[in-house]
Design goal:
globular, TIM Barrel, 6 domains, 38 strands, alpha/beta, eight-stranded parallel beta sheet, six-stranded mixed beta sheet
């Protein structure tokens, strides 16, 4: 019988990690497998989903398991997959407790029903690996148990077979030889072997603690073992073979696992315990641990689990070790541990885990809080439909944690935040880019901190997703004291870091020692030291505290953290800034070793605002080495002028509009700002500190760019800038130079063909632009110095941050390239872990050979990709790009290879491309080039594991057949002046139908926003059909409907005619209408969102509001449930969408609803990434042949 490829469902992703069995089976079939080894865990977790109980204790679990097995069998049948085995029937054979033995046999009877449903006759039984005290070493008893099991299988119809597998960590049977002895002596036709490569090699060949990854004489031992197997084992008794691999780490990871212990003692832990007793075991374990810490003190990762806390001696070892080495305590939310284990918080086991957290904290000097990834589980789904589970996000599960932990390690070892792990390439050692993020907050011309109180985060008056509002850093103020305050701080530092990628300034509010419940100064410093464990970028400490405690804080911190010594004078008296005491406090901060000194006081009179500016100038101009940076301003309302004048790290409050009615005049707390970021920026322009500048988009045909002027103007207005943005069409580099010589020139985005043409005319370019051979950003240099001959030499761009937002003569021009950053970000964000870039295996395909293609290649090289294929219509240009990069990095071999034509087959023995980047325009560019008209060959798109497709142009380039996107603005909205039109659902639906007809669309996916929901439903009723049927002649195939923040059809009983009319009449009264709109927001919805929604909604004429809303609330013959029965549909809603909490919502059991988490208002204007992912997943589900992710770079 020929071998047929099968795969274990466990190998495709664990169920507890939220890997959907539907998706796993689909992937197995898509990759050519013919069989599936079902892991019981998949049945168990699907049964939990069916029961609605997600704990270990499902009441009457077996009926749900039977149903789960039926569904798995049905999905396998749909994909022509045969279930070859159910495994593992664990912990059977040799049990001392014979009551437990009988329970296992009772469970076996249930498994007989499961395998019959699954359509297989095979159950895999692994050798027992329970602790030695629960098992007998008597092989005869094990043989009797296995004979009993086999005989029960023979009684079934058809008979059930059993495959006995040796487990490398089995307690008494851990080799294939011992397993074969059992099979032979049982002597039943339905008992055979499962040979597993991992478990065979794990005992005689592999050693994870060895630098080579192998045991001494491993190869010869393996060869001898295989020879013995061939000679002794009857191959008819080998029921199946498992091929399992494991990857050796570049540097061995040593933890205290049994194999490492065994290399030191010659016996397992269990055997050592039996021979020598527990006291001797603990003593020797300490010896092993000490030896491990000494031998692997550098160049290694050592993992210690709960076993490291068993004795006080081990804890003492770790406490000593942390004085010279970083020890990271990886923490996580115990609520999810409780939920996963199905335990209550009062359970003894949970108490033990909480105690372990305390011990781990004492034995470590760093801490990483591993946030639960909400995107990994569809907890926000409001209705359950077991037939069609939500799209799996398994390929990206834990990606956030991976990136965040990598960033944390960057801070631990003081590696630049923008570092990407790759071989050293040009520019890595001197990263001089235009990104302001590369300058520390204290080195910027101006920097601002979003002030956030921990109490606000805990009480949900501040949402983490609203923290990204334009400031340079987050000022986190610990202002509460709870029994779990350390854990709260840990959790919310991680929440902030996931929400925003900007520095954290950490401080503890100190309103007297009473805040700390009598614990006073010691607890204040406990909280400060706790912040240091997370490598926060800045920590503020009160310099009035005991000097030795501050110095210990400074000695404890890692280089990534800078200490800010702060002094707040609550009662300054008259002209406080002119007193000698202020200079003394600054010098105290310097003598202690603070990197920055912060001095504040309430403003008594306006003169204090002038005095603080004088004091700041005095400090900045004083001579002396290593002077700390100074933050100085007055707090409170009267101090707002000085807050505008302060240059670095000024705290600001959130919002864009500051109403005087919201100002608290008696609030003089040092960390409570009285200005917003927008106030600050507007104040700088109003006082002529900043100058209005002119920014440009320049190209041969710039109108096709992704960057509309309106987007820039709105952004400028939102942040308070008085700049302008213009699109300029030019024909030569000289035209660009003329524009750039204006004293008001602020910078320009450069488009083709000038990205490469202007390169040689620039005075300075970044190392990245030099490596790429193209720029996309042009910036002015306004400071210069004289060289030895008297000539003008511009200062490097990195030395000119203070010239941003300032007009003046342009000395020279600086060119940079930021395209690669965006491309790199899209690749990293969207490439699944399975397709993670590997220098040997990963392959990329670039379409084009211009500036965008060069930036894409550079990004890929930085990420470690060493096989990049380029296709371009003009082969000569592709060859030029290949020569450029292959010459630039000759030590890396031939990185760039050419595909000369579309008929060129994909190279033999080469992996398919998992990264495809299109860097060609989708249109003609003023005669420079004609629009492309081709489709990539199918042979170039054969990745079975998916990948990333990124397009650098807004318009859809026909590199592959995909969907068109058409935005339809319904008639009667906005500026309508036709009061007599009878606006209603049918009219709107027919308007949509007209567009569809004009565009000759045959198959559509409808994305229906708000009132567009009923219109989409009506469109389906009037013009649509499903993919399988056509209801009317020339009907459009509606492949799916995505409702976004959509009204639901109301049942007739919910609103009567009078109530519907009243709804419409309310729209005629602006005050009532505004009040109605205000219900769309939550308390933390920003002012700019409120203004935008109000302005847009009020622009709709009153008669349109009334008629449209009345008609929208009419019950319709075709409702959502009926739609969902015909076509795939989903409703994506914001958290406070009105229908969520209304009782009529529950009349729609069939409609899948996805509740968003990344938005704070209904009718959310800026779609979060979660929304894009949901649309993408929906598209994948209804277009199963599409296995690539498409991302539009720069698309709004």
């Amino acid at each position: 019988m020929p071998n047929r490829p099968a795969i274990s469902s466990m190998s495709l992703g664990r169920a507890w990690a939220n890997h959907s069995i539907n998706e796993k089976i689909a992937q197995a079939a898509a990759h050519g497998f013919e069989g599936l080894e079902v892991f019981f865990e998949d049945i168990d977790y699907l049964a939990r989903d069916l029961s609605g109980v997600h704990s270990n204790d499902i009441p009457s679990a077996f009926p749900y398991q039977l149903e789960a097995a039926k569904r798995i069998r049905g999905i396998c049948d749909e994909h022509s997959l045969q279930v070859v085995c159910l495994q593992p029937f664990m912990f059977y054979g040799g049990l001392k407790d014979r009551t437990e033995h009988q329970k296992r046999l009772d469970t076996l009877k249930e498994w007989f029903q499961l395998v019959k449903i699954l359509g297989t006759d095979l159950i895999q039984v692994p050798t027992n690996f329970l602790p030695a005290h629960e098992l007998t070493p008597d092989l005869d008893l094990v043989i009797d148990d296995m004979r009993q099991l086999a005989d029960m299988g023979l009684e079934q119809s058809p008979p059930v077979r059993f495959a006995f597998e040796n487990i490398a960590w089995g307690t008494y049977i851990h080799t294939w030889e011992r397993a074969w002895e059992v099979v032979k002596r049982v002597d039943r036709p339905n008992l055979g072997l499962c040979l597993d490569t991992f478990n065979i090699l794990g005992g005689i060949w592999a050693d994870p603690a060895s630098p080579t990854g192998k045991l001494p004489d491993a190869d010869s031992a393996l060869e001898e073992s295989i020879d013995r197997l061939r000679q002794t084992v009857d191959m008819d008794k080998v029921f199946y073979v498992q091929v399992v691999d494991a990857e050796r780490l570049e540097r061995p990871m040593n933890d205290q696992h049994p194999l490492y212990f065994q290399t030191q003692t010659g016996v397992s832990r269990a055997e050592y315990l039996k021979i020598h007793g527990n006291a001797a075991l603990q003593t020797f374990t300490v010896t092993v641990m000490r030896k491990m810490l000494e031998e692997y003190s550098t160049g290694c990762i050592i993992e210690c689990g709960l076993g490291s806390l068993v004795t006080g001696v081990r804890q003492l070892l770790l406490r000593e070790y942390k004085d010279t080495h970083p020890i990271i305590h990886i923490n996580r939310c115990l609520r999810y541990v409780e939920k996963y284990l199905g335990l209550s918080s009062e359970n003894h086991g949970m108490g033990f885990l909480r105690d372990c957290d305390v011990a781990h904290r004492e034995c470590s000097n760093l801490e990483y809080y591993n946030l639960f990834d909400q995107s990994s589980r569809d907890d926000s789904t409001l209705t359950q439909d077991s037939e069609q589970p939500p799209p799996s996000k398994a390929p990206f599960f834990l990606k956030n944690a991976k990136q965040e932990f990598s960033s944390f390690l960057d801070l631990v070892i003081s590696r630049p935040a923008h570092h990407v792990k790759s071989d050293a390439i040009q520019g890595d050692d001197f990263y001089e880019s235009s990104s302001i993020d590369l300058f520390p907050l204290e080195c910027r011309d101006r920097s601002y901190l979003r002030s956030v109180r921990l109490s606000g985060l805990v009480n949900k008056t501040i949402e983490a997703h609203d923290l990204a509002s334009g400031e340079d850093g987050i000022l986190l103020i610990v202002d509460i004291l709870t029994p779990d305050i350390l854990t709260l701080v840990s959790e919310y530092i991680s929440i902030i870091r996931r929400a925003v990628k900007i520095p954290i300034v950490y401080t503890v509010e100190r309103d007297g020692s009473e805040r700390f419940g009598g614990k006073g100064v010691d607890y204040y410093f406990t909280l400060l030291h706790h912040g240091l464990r997370f490598c926060v970028e800045y920590t503020i400490v009160d310099i009035n505290s005991e000097t030795t405690k501050i110095q210990k804080l400074i000695q404890t911190k890692l280089p990534a953290t800078k200490i800010i010594g702060s002094y707040f004078d609550p009662h300054p008296g008259e002209r406080g800034w002119m007193q000698e005491d202020r200079k003394t406090k600054y010098q105290l901060g310097k003598s202690i070793g603070c990197h920055i000194v912060q001095l504040t006081q309430p403003a008594i009179t306006q003169a204090d605002n002038e005095d603080v500016q004088y004091f700041s100038r005095l400090i900045r101009e004083q001579p002396g080495p290593n002077n700390p940076f100074l933050i100085a301003y007055n707090v409170g309302v009267r101090g707002r002028t000085s807050q505008l004048a302060n240059r670095i790290m000024t705290p600001v409050k959130h919002g864009t509009i500051l109403n005087d009615t919201k100002v608290t005049f008696d609030n003089d707390r040092p960390f409570d700002p009285q200005i917003t970021l927008r106030n600050a920026i507007q104040g700088l322009f109003a006082n002529f500190i900043f100058d209005p500048l002119e920014f440009y988009l320049i190209g041969r045909q710039p109108s096709v760019s992704l960057i509309p002027p309106a987007m820039h103007r709105v952004a400028y207005g939102h942040c308070g800038f008085s700049h302008t943005f213009k699109i300029v069409q030019v024909s030569s580099c000289e035209d660009i130079n003329k524009i750039a010589q204006s004293p008001k020139f602020g910078g320009a985005s450069i488009m083709i063909p000038f990205k490469t043409l202007i390169l040689n005319q620039l005075d300075q370019i970044s190392p990245q632009a030099a490596a790429i051979g193209a720029i996309n950003t042009l910036l002015p240099l306004r400071r210069a110095t004289a060289d030895s001959s008297g000539g003008i030499v511009p200062l490097p761009f990195a030395l000119q941050p203070e010239n941003r937002n300032h007009a003046g003569p342009v000395v020279k021009l600086f060119g940079d390239n930021t395209d690669w950053l965006g491309i790199q970000s899209v690749i990293v964000r969207n490439l699944s872990p399975r397709n993670a870039i590997d220098p040997v295996r990963s392959v990329a395909l670039i379409i084009g050979a211009g500036g965008g293609a060069r930036a894409a290649i550079y990004a890929l090289i930085r990420l470690g990709c060493r096989k990049i294929y380029v296709y371009n219509r003009t082969v000569e240009r592709a060859e030029k790009v290949a020569r450029h990069f292959n010459t630039l990095y000759p030590e890396k071999g031939t990185i760039i290879r050419i595909l000369p034509s579309l008929t060129t087959p994909w190279p033999e023995n080469e992996e398919p491309a998992t990264i495809i980047i299109s860097a060609i325009p989708a249109h003609s560019l003023g005669g420079i080039c004609s629009p492309p008209n081709f489709t990539l060959p199918e042979g170039w798109l054969q990745s079975k594991t998916g990948g990333v497709v990124a397009e650098l142009w807004a318009s859809q380039s026909p590199i592959y057949e995909s969907h068109r996107s058409i935005l339809i603005d319904l008639p009667g909205h906005g500026d309508s002046d036709s009061p007599h039109i009878d606006y209603n659902v049918e009219l709107f639906a027919r308007a949509v139908g007209k567009v569809v007809e004009q565009e000759n669309l045959k198959r559509v996916i409808l994305i229906a926003h708000s009132l567009g929901g009923p219109i989409a439903t009506m469109f389906l009723r009037l013009f649509g059909s499903t993919s399988s049927t056509r209801a009317v002649e020339n009907a459009v195939v509606v492949a799916g409907i995505i409702y976004v923040d959509s009204f639901l059809h109301l049942p007739e009983s919910y609103l009567n005619a009078e109530e519907r009319r009243s709804l419409g009449q309310a729209r005629l009264n602006d005050e009532k209408f505004i009040a109605d709109i205000n219900t769309l927001f939550t308390s933390d919805t920003s002012e700019d969102i409120r203004e935008t929604v109000l302005r847009t909604m009020l622009a709709t004429p009153k008669h349109v509001r009334a008629v449209a809303v009345t008609s929208m609330t009419q019950p319709h013959a075709l409702g959502y449930n009926e739609v969902y029965e015909q076509v795939p549909a989903i409703n994506i809603i914001a958290p406070n969408c009105a229908p969520v909490d209304r009782h009529w919502f529950h009349h729609l059991p069939l409609l899948k609803v996805k509740k968003m988490t990344g938005v704070s208002h209904w009718l959310f204007l800026e779609k979060p990434e979660e929304f894009n992912q949901e649309v993408e997943n929906f598209w994948r589900n209804i277009s199963p042949s599409s296995n690539h992710v498409t991302s539009k770079l720069g698309s709004p």
